[in-house]
Design brief:
Elements: H1 10-21, E1 31-35, E2 41-45, H2 49-57, H3 72-85, H4 90-101, H5 121-126, H6 135-152, H7 157-166, H8 168-174, H9 181-196, E3 216-219, E4 225-228
Antiparallel strand pairs: 1-2, 3-4
Helix pairs in contact: 1-2, 3-6, 4-9, 6-7, 7-8, 7-9
Length: 231
Amino acid sequence: MRILIHSHWAVLLSGLFLSTLLPTAAQADQIVILVDEHGHKVYVNTGDAATHVDWMARSFRPNPAAVPARAPEEIDGLLEQTASRFKVDPELVRAIVRVESDFDPKAVSSKGAMGLMQLVPATAQRFGVENPFDPKQNLEGGVNYLKHLLELFGGDLGLSLAAYNAGEHSVQRYGGIPAFAETRNYVRKVRNLYQTGDAPAPPRSTPREPPQPSITRYVDEHGVVHYTNLE
């Protein structure tokens, strides 16, 4: 069944839509599609439906243009600091960021995931991220979520990565890595980068060399040739 919701009515109809589908207690793994005022689809878990309706009502509108640009080395420094604070291997975070966004802080997926660690609106709200295009906030929320998943699945890397891609409820329902081609490819890519150490930090800015003084040649009154860099 295909359901289209006009963007101007998305917030108003979302509560009616949810109440129609969920007359009583909803299953935690049901998925509902909401459309915000910009026409973006947001896939939410109805187990926390009230939270997501409130999220839509408050018109989450992160603006990448409002975030100052950061140099690649600054982003990598933030990654190191955040990973260390949450006691997560920074190389694992680098591998995830490489696969998720290729270190592009302004990346947006077709499903509305945003920023370095590709946070969907529901995950961003869950972990207190106001603007997912801010590298500091994005890494904070993404690494926090990753830490949560690692603890939830007893440190199992494969299950944690699958949950990061497909959602923790999908992994719990399936009892392992879901048989989604996208999720299995995602787990394989991240693991390969992480285990081989082939997820380098973003290229660092090349420092500019100071300008070299020009050399001047002159001949003095005795016919002696001089070379100087003094003006």
